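Take a sample.
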Amino acid sequence: MIKMGVILHGMDVPFYRLSRISNSDAEFGRFRWPDWSLAEPIEFLKIRHEPEDGLPLRERTQVAALWDERNLYLTFAVFDKGIWATITTRDARLFHEECVEFFIDPDGDGRRYVETQVNSLGTVRDLLVDGTISHPTPLQYDAMALWRFRALRSEVSELNVNHRRVAGWRLQVAIPWVEFDFSHRAWPPQPGDELRINFYRYERPQSGIGSLELSGWSCVQGSFHQPGCFGRFIFQSNDDH
C-alpha cells in the first residue's frame, strides 16, 4: 500500500503532502478515526537540551496527518520510557511538565495562530495567539488561552507499533475546519492549498534530574513562537497518491 503523506526536503522549511481521505461514516453523522497506516510519519528532530549536553534525542516522537472535507486529523506517537503528567486543569500551563504541541497559522501571516498543548492525561491548553504583540508575558498568554476550540476531538491511548505495545502514548486529534473561521480563508481547503503548521514536544525527567529535551518538526532557535519557521502542509486530492 502506498503511503499518502510525503515529506519534501531541501526547502527553507519542511513540506508535507497529506491526502484527502473518504470518510463514509461522516455522511451518517458518525465519527471514526482514520486509518493511520495510510499516512507517512514525520520524525521529530532535536531542537536543544536545556542545559545543552551535546547528546542526541533521548525519546522519539512522530506525527502524521490526513484530511477530509470536515476535519484535519493528526496523530502523535510519543515514545516515552518515563511517562508522567499531573495537570488536569483545562488551559493550565502544561509545558511545565511533559506535553506535545501543535501550532497552526491558517492565514500564514503570523498575525493570529492557534497553539495547542496536550499531555498524556488528555488535558488540553488551547490559545489563539495574537502575533502582533511582541514578546507576550505569561499572563498575556493566559489571556489568549481564554479562547477555546468549540468542537476539537482528542483521544489519548496506549502506543502500539506493529500490534505490540511499546513504552509511550498515542494522541489522536480531529480539528473541524470551522474552528478556523477567525481567519480570512475559505474552509475546507482545496487540493493544492497550503497550511503553515509546526509541532513540538517537551520531555523532562519527573525527578528534575537531567536536562529538558525540546524536539519538533521545523526546528527553531529560541522561542517556539516563530510562525515564519512553521512547516508547510500541502493538501492533495484522493487521486494524488
Notes: The chain has one domain: 6-21+38-236.
